[in-house]
Design a protein that fits this description.
Blueprint: E1 5-6, H1 9-19, H2 25-28, E2 31-33, E3 62-69, E4 75-77, E5 84-88, E6 91-93, E7 95-99, E8 105-112, H3 121-132, E9 140-146, E10 150-157, H4 160-167, H5 178-188, E11 196-203, H6 214-223, E12 227-233, H7 244-258, E13 264-267, H8 273-285, E14 288-292, E15 303-310, E16 320-323, E17 326-328
Parallel strand pairs: 1-2, 2-4, 8-9, 8-11, 11-12, 12-13
Antiparallel strand pairs: 3-14, 3-16, 5-6, 5-15, 7-14, 9-10, 15-17
Length: about 325
């Protein structure tokens, strides 16, 4: 499934103003092509990247996927390498390779099957289905379900129908071991074959049954090579049935997603679930790949902060880049 809205530079500002009257524009028209689409080349096969952080490091290159959105949260395609400035620990880096191609992704679906998901399972299954419709034929997937404990119910497969078939038999019961489910998914990702990796979490609340702590999982995610996307299905803040764990859920998912260059979405209307999941799938298909050789050659294992700034074409409104905020340098 693809959505594409093509606007010229001279008409984009007017189009944005008109579209602002419709609050659903970001779901119905999630992409804007503002220039001739870039044709950056992938690195040659012999330039093997160490598959550590999603920011990925070997002796020469670091890879940073970047998504760009406009003020209406639509994805902006067609930018060139000259539209990006990249910094590591505040020192500007030279972008050596640039690509805007749709490259294969390894995706782990982390699916909440706790008791409170009962009435939400149907729409949640539809959300996964919509997400899978955006897949690249070379993608691979796996499925982790969690309630009292996590379970890998579908291992890595190139057939997305295996995920959908398994979800058809899912039943809701038990408590919520979200952190354990995410930790299991990150371990499974070590077996993934694609350099790009992402996890999609679908859950209706915070954690109340995990062995791993928030600190342990946050550190593991920070060190990983995985972009985390999350859809949180939340009760209204003033709901009498909302537990303290559920109240903490949005902040937890936001922190996990933002530090990996992913995003977290809060959903209160179940009917919006499929559209939000499709939007995440489209974002993964419309990211810019920025490769650079760090000027800091020290292999000290320290955390290095990364920042991406945009040089927007004349006449456009402010554009927002979404990217991983840092990575750990290699030690060997």
């Amino acid at each position: 499934m693809r959505f594409l809205l093509t606007l010229s530079l001279t008409s984009l500002t007017a189009a944005l103003a008109a579209a602002d009257k419709d609050e659903k524009t970001d779901l119905q028209q999630p992409m804007v092509n503002i220039t001739t689409r870039a044709t950056g080349q992938r690195p040659e096969p012999e330039m093997a990247l160490d598959r550590r952080p999603n920011i990925r490091v070997d002796t020469t290159l670091v890879l940073i996927p970047v998504a760009v959105t406009d003020p209406l949260s639509r994805f902006v395609t067609g930018l060139d390498k000259e539209n990006f400035r990249l910094y590591e620990d505040k020192v500007e880096q030279q972008i050596i390779q640039f690509s805007s191609e749709d490259t294969p992704v390894s995706v782990g679906v982390v699916f909440d099957t706790s008791g409170s998901m009962g009435a939400k399972l149907s729409r949640s299954r539809q959300a996964v289905s919509q997400f899978l419709k955006t897949a690249n034929p070379e993608d691979e997937f796996f499925l982790v379900e969690f309630s009292d404990r996590p379970e890998l119910v579908v291992g890595l497969t190139s057939n997305p129908e295996e995920i959908q078939n398994r979800l058809a038999f899912t039943q809701a019961k038990g408590s919520t071991a979200l952190l354990d489910g995410l930790y299991m998914a990150m371990n499974q990702m070590k077996n993934a074959r694609n350099p790009r990796k992402a996890i999609l979490i679908i859950s209706d609340g915070g954690d109340n049954s995990s062995r791993y702590t928030q600190g342990e999982v946050k550190n593991a995610v920070r060190e990983s090579d995985v972009q985390v996307y999350a859809i949180g299905i939340y009760e209204p803040p003033d709901s009498l049935g909302r537990t303290p764990e559920e109240a903490a859920g949005p902040e937890l998912l936001n922190v996990l997603a933002e530090q990996t260059g992913g995003r977290a979405f809060a959903v209160s209307n179940l009917a919006d679930l499929p559209d939000v999941a499709a939007k995440i799938g489209i974002e993964l298909r419309n990211q810019y790949m920025l490769y650079y050789a760090p000027k800091n050659l020290m292999r000290d294992g320290k955390y290095r902060r990364v920042q991406v700034k945009l040089v927007k074409p004349a006449g456009l409104p402010a554009l927002k880049p979404t990217f991983r905020t840092g990575y750990y340098a290699p030690t060997q």
